[in-house]
Each structure stands twice: as structure tokens, then as C-alpha cells.
Specification:
Length: 203
């Protein structure tokens, strides 16, 4: 059975201020969900709810066809996620594996560092990295466990042309392997959309 991700009447309120309401969607393996909306409309909030980082005020998120906890099947990349800057790139990846209850896998770590083009900086502290290099480390952390569902908040943030090309490859591969969710207002960031949520219409 292929995986599917759905939201039913999802709503979020902060301090009695309605962010969005009545958000409904369903995407399955091989499909892309696009979330758009003006600043403050709740794009990041909706992705956090899908991940289980935040709870909806009402409504439900359902993951079909996958056993175990939702977090084990998800990968998230966002500009607001923080790395351990005193750690090296390799140490950040090994820590991410540990948090997910997986043994340190040097082959996986090395392969991902090669993939993001930072193998030559694997033993350098992340605090010395540029913003684009840090963003690529975040991608590596999200891809460590080959998630069935990959969520990208402003996927091209802080990336140069080489980094943007890398992200486009990641998105294409994810559509083959599972479900891709992207929050952005820059439609040049994404070339394939199956379901779109415009949060400007969900007030």
C-alpha cells in the first residue's frame, strides 16, 4: 500500500487570533503538496502541524499506509531550524541519527556529505559555515533516514545556483520515492504540483 497524507478541517488559533481554518488536503506517494500564502498566513505553522511539532486547534492530520510514529517517516528542512554550531558537520549528522534511535552509520554520513558537496568540510565546526552551507547540512539531516514524506519550508532560502540545483534534484527524487510538501510563494521554486493550499483563502 502506498503512503498518503491528509488533513481534515485543520485549524490553528494563537491567542484567539485565527491563523487559518478548514484546511483540507490529501496527497499520496508520487505527489507534491504546495502551500502558499502571504507572510503571516501560517505556511510554516501548517508544516509544523503536519510534522507533529505543533498541534492543531481543531481538525486532524492522518498518515496512511505507514506503521509507527509519524516522526519516523518525516523529514523537515526550514530556515528556522537550528544546527549545533559548535559541532562539526559529521557530528551533527551522527547526532541526528542518534535522536532517531539509529546507530551511527559512517557510510550513510559520508554518502550524504558527498551528496551535499561538503565532504571536504566534514570535520569543521558548523559555526564557520556560510548560510548556504548550513542549509545544505539541514538537507542532509532531513534525508538521513530516507523519509517517505519530505517537507520543505522556503526550499531555496540561502542557496546559490549550485545549492538550488541540488534541491531540485532532491525534490525530483522525493516525488519518485514518496510525498513532497513545499511551502513557498516563489513558484519558480517548484515545477510539479498536484495539490495546492492557498492559505490566503483559509482565514
Amino acid at each position: 500500500m502506498s503512503a498518503a497524507l491528509s488533513g481534515n478541517r485543520v485549524a490553528k488559533t494563537f491567542n484567539r487570533r485565527k491563523i487559518f481554518s478548514q484546511v483540507n488536503f490529501r496527497v499520496a506517494s508520487g505527489q507534491t503538496l504546495l502551500v502558499t500564502g502571504r507572510n503571516g498566513s501560517g505556511k510554516s505553522t501548517l508544516l509544523k502541524i503536519i510534522c507533529g511539532v505543533l498541534s492543531p486547534t481543531s481538525g486532524t492530520i492522518t498518515l496512511e499506509g505507514l506503521a509507527g510514529e509519524r516522526i519516523q517517516h518525516l523529514g523537515l528542512v526550514a530556515p528556522y531550524l537550528q544546527l549545533y554550531e559548535e559541532f562539526t558537520a559529521s557530528e551533527n549528522l551522527r547526532l541526528a541519527l542518534s535522536i532517531r534511535g539509529r546507530p551511527p552509520d559512517e557510510h550513510t554520513v559520508q554518502s550524504l556529505l558527498d551528496r551535499i558537496g561538503l565532504a571536504h568540510r566534514k570535520d569543521d565546526a558548523v559555526r564557520g559555515f556560510s548560510s548556504g552551507m548550513k542549509q545544505r547540512v539541514k538537507y542532509a539531516m532531513a534525508l538521513l533516514h530516507a523519509p517517505e514524506i519530505l517537507l520543505l519550508d522556503e526550499p531555496m532560502a540561502n542557496l546559490d545556483a549550485e545549492g538550488t540545483s541540488f534541491v531540485r534534484r532532491v525534490m525530483a527524487e522525493q516525488r519518485v520515492r514518496g510525498i513532497l510538501c513545499v511551502a513557498t510563494n516563489d513558484l519558480d521554486d517548484i515545477d510539479t504540483v498536484h495539490v495546492r493550499i492557498d492559505l490566503n483563502e483559509q482565514r
